[in-house]
Design brief:
two-stranded antiparallel ribbon; Agenet-like_dom; 36% strand; ten-stranded antiparallel β-sheet; extended; Agenet-like domain-containing protein; alpha+beta; 232 residues; Agenet_dom_plant; SH3 type barrels
């Protein structure tokens, strides 16, 4: 991501903040922008945590790098849009603000944010445990913390991504690079194994047929010698 010069953030605006601190990776904290400053070319926001009023107000760089990564990440985004169930919406286009419309029932595989301990944790639903409970798995490190938990459906919201260029969008499935690399490697290994098996099978068959022909001509030659006929 390249730094964006015309960000829509204003003093007094409610927003959400993420962090790369171990133990809180993959979590979004609700906050309020108290001040905006630019120092040494870096845009900083003076943020007060909405759900942690006793937490010290701090300056946060808007763009940061995760450890061992070259790409920069936008750490702040606008307040999450209003959420409506599909059955509640009469005319979604009539709403003046951005809204998120979700199905009436969660499904296995849905990407969700789980509200617990004063913040929203990003993960995926892995099991349905009844009408009002699910099991979720937080995204694997370094994107998230990776544990599995039981969660109440009332504490879930759909996961969404936000960027200055596209606004709110559905997220691309969060699969770590090494998982994709492993998947593709396994595909190539399977294909290579089939190729080896094909070559081995055909070579074995050719060797078997060659042995049959050798035995055939050897027996023919032996029979001709036994009959006193000159070999051909």
């Amino acid at each position: 991501m390249q730094p964006h010069q015309n960000l829509p953030f204003k003093v007094g605006q409610l927003a959400e903040l993420k962090t790369f601190e171990t133990g809180f990776r993959g979590a979004w904290f609700r906050c309020k922008i108290n001040r905006i400053s630019k120092k040494k070319g870096h845009i900083q926001h003076y943020l007060k945590f909405y759900d942690f009023p006793d937490e010290k107000v701090q300056w946060t760089k808007l763009y940061q790098k995760q450890e061992k990564e070259r790409d920069i990440h936008l750490m702040v985004r606008p307040s999450f849009p209003s959420i409506y169930c599909e059955s509640q919406m009469q005319d979604p286009l009539a709403a003046s603000d951005v809204i998120a419309v979700v199905d009436d029932a969660w499904k296995v595989g849905d990407l969700v944010d789980w509200w617990t301990d004063g913040c929203y944790w990003c993960g995926r639903i892995t099991h349905l445990l009844g009408e009002d409970k699910v099991k979720i798995k937080l995204h694997d490190p370094p994107v998230g913390e990776g544990q599995c938990y039981e969660a109440s459906c009332k504490d879930l919201r759909p996961s969404l991504d936000w960027s200055p260029e596209r606004g709110w969008t559905l997220p691309i499935s969060s699969v770590p690079f090494f998982s994709l690399f492993y998947f593709h490697c396994m595909n190539y290994i399977v294909i290579f194994s089939y190729w080896i098996q094909f070559v081995f099978t055909n070579c074995t068959f050719a060797l078997y047929r060659g042995t049959q022909w050798v035995n055939f001509f050897s027996e023919r030659k032996t029979n001709e010698l036994d009959m006193g006929n000159p070999p051909t």
